[in-house]
């Protein structure tokens, strides 16, 4: 190809490119196109947010089901709850756990003794580190008793031979004290056996 031919070819390419760019500049989005584009961006952002929230919930939340009558009247057999796995549990929290004597089962109990606590019951009253601790969640059951006590006297020493709750362990009890299998029977619950804190009941709906 001659030099003149090459120049003509280049001029044609430049002309086509300029024509294409001009056409692109002349293209304008209609109001409907702009609305659809904004809607697409919003849907994409919303979808990403939903994925992030869902993953976060799955990582920190599980579900627990009550089996038995140890937590009556607050929690009934068959009740289903959300369980927060990402929370530091404290005294009187209701927790979902694996009992030391039944490692294939799960149960719901209330934390009474924290690591390092000395505790005992005397005349139906809880004492932690020699200080009385009211258990208001038991008031209704105590008021229903006629000439009896809800929680018989005991101490950690009488149950386990230890005077304090060991490190990384908890002493748990059911609210239905007269019919509950708990730390009085199977001993302390390790922190690795506590799945999380029981929060909202999701079934039944009443």
UniProtKB/TrEMBL annotation:
The lineage of its organism: Bacteria, Bacillati, Bacillota, Bacilli, Lactobacillales. This is Signal peptidase I. Belongs to the peptidase S26 family. Residues 42-200 form the Peptidase S26 domain. PANTHER family: CHLOROPLAST PROCESSING PEPTIDASE, SIGNAL PEPTIDASE I. Keywords: Hydrolase, Membrane, Protease, Transmembrane, Transmembrane helix. Its EC number is 3.4.21.89. It is a single-pass type II membrane protein.
């Amino acid at each position: 190809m001659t030099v003149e031919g090459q120049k003509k070819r280049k001029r044609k390419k430049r002309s086509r490119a300029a024509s294409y760019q001009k056409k692109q500049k002349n293209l304008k989005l209609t109001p409907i196109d702009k609305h659809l584009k904004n809607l697409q961006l919003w849907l994409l952002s919303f979808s990403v947010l939903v994925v992030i929230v869902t993953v976060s919930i799955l990582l920190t939340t599980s579900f627990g089901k009550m089996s038995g009558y140890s937590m009556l009247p607050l929690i009934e057999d068959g009740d289903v709850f959300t369980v927060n796995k990402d929370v530091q549990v404290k005294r009187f929290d209701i927790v979902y756990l694996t009992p030391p004597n039944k490692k294939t089962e799960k149960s719901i109990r209330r934390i009474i003794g924290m690591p390092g606590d000395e505790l005992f019951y005397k005349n139906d009253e809880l004492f932690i580190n020699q200080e009385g601790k009211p258990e208001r969640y038991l008031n209704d059951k105590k008021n229903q008793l006629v000439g009896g006590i809800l929680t018989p006297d005991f101490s950690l020493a009488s149950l386990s031979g230890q005077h304090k709750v060991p490190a990384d362990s908890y002493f748990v009890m059911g609210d239905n004290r007269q019919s509950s299998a708990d730390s009085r029977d199977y001993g302390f619950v390790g922190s690795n056996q506590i799945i999380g804190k029981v929060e909202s009941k999701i079934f039944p709906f009443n």
